[in-house]
Write a structure and sequence with these properties.
Elements: H1 5-24, H2 29-36, H3 40-52, E1 56-58, E2 71-73, E3 79-85, E4 89-96, E5 101-108, H4 115-130, E6 137-144, E7 147-149, E8 154-157, E9 165-167, H5 169-174, E10 181-185, H6 186-197, E11 206-211, E12 215-221, E13 224-226, E14 240-241, E15 248-249, H7 250-254, H8 256-268, H9 274-282, H10 288-296, H11 300-324, E16 328-332, H12 340-353, H13 356-359, E17 364-366, H14 373-386, H15 391-412
Parallel strand pairs: 3-6, 6-10, 11-16, 16-17
Antiparallel strand pairs: 1-2, 3-4, 4-5, 7-8, 8-9, 11-12, 12-13, 14-15
Helix pairs in contact: 1-3, 2-3, 6-14, 10-11, 11-12
Length: 413
Amino acid sequence: MHPRPRETKLAAKKNGILNEVFRSGGCLRFDLARRLNINATMVGNYVDELLGEGLLVEGDPAAAPRGRAPLLINPEHGAFLGLDFEALRARAVACDFAGNVIAQEELAFPAEVSREKVLKRIVALAKRLVARIKAPLLSVGVAAPGQVDCEAGRVIHYRLLPDFDQVPIRDRFQEVVEAPVFVEDNIRAVAYGELLRGSGRGIRNFLCLAVRSGVGLGIVVNGELYSGAHSMAGEVGYMVFPTPEGPRLATDLVSATGFVDATVKAMKSRKPTDIRKRLLQERDRVDLADIVAAAREGDEWCREALERLGTHLGMLAASLANLFAPEKLVLAGEVPGCSPLVRQQMERTFRQYTLPTILATAYLEDGTLGGYAGALGAAWQGFARTFPVSESILVSRAKEKFERQRGEFAAEA
């Protein structure tokens, strides 16, 4: 049966209250009415219902301004799981209903992996965290790499893992958990985490440049994530850079895997220093930290490689700033902060190539959520998806259910 408009509006307003309390970490009834532009009496009625349903609780009045009890999300009402994976590792978090971390775990992938091994490992990681959750699990958010079809819940293509084409991520997780599973682009999940409770909190327009195994961009416009057509916005790893060796993709120049692979290849073709010779002989798989350590020990060639990395990162950041004119660029992932050489050169290049009018307000800032930003963003998105604010979302879901049931009834007839 099609929902009546009044019921839809009621649900949307109650969900709006829940989301505002979740985002803010707690607020007063008066502030809710002002922020949501809802009559204070009506807010009081909705809040009383949410308190009665166990979704909200009242905090300590003594700890609040003017001695009024703040409204808080009831942390015991349920739980959310978020999992973020890329070419080198996976991270997962379990959060209570208020978004506080209950448990977290990181898993590094071996040098040689297959598509099936990766899937088995990340599903097993999720199962381990689910076992540590006591409250009802309400959703599982998977922040996936590469080109992601969020609606279908699959990875279309990811060039950094073998045979990672048309991978049914949602289906694999749905086989082992009963809660709803959704799939999000991993860099958008990072951006959502920083928007909600990180460096982007309170910022209406910013970019989140995440440089990890690959490189991607989360775009926040007017306080909302921008996904673009087909949910493909932010694939900056496929931007092309001119180099002396010819055109190169950004991901091959600045991502952890691309930079390390190119640097190791160049190492092997040059006369090695004692530092580089030891590095190549002792390490099965050279990583970014090894190159940083070699530069710190005095290897001039590794220092120059890191400075070039910083230059390329600064050029990328400047190009994005000139294109979007954001309030700031939030930097995420291990690459931008891997070495002072990289970060300082990135800052210099960013200032050199960013338009003065944009540079007057836009700046680079490290994300505050660290390596678990993607997993946290995926977990916290579960709250917004469980309690959607948009009335159009509620109506469209009801229509989809109605059309599905109508098709089933027609088949039976």
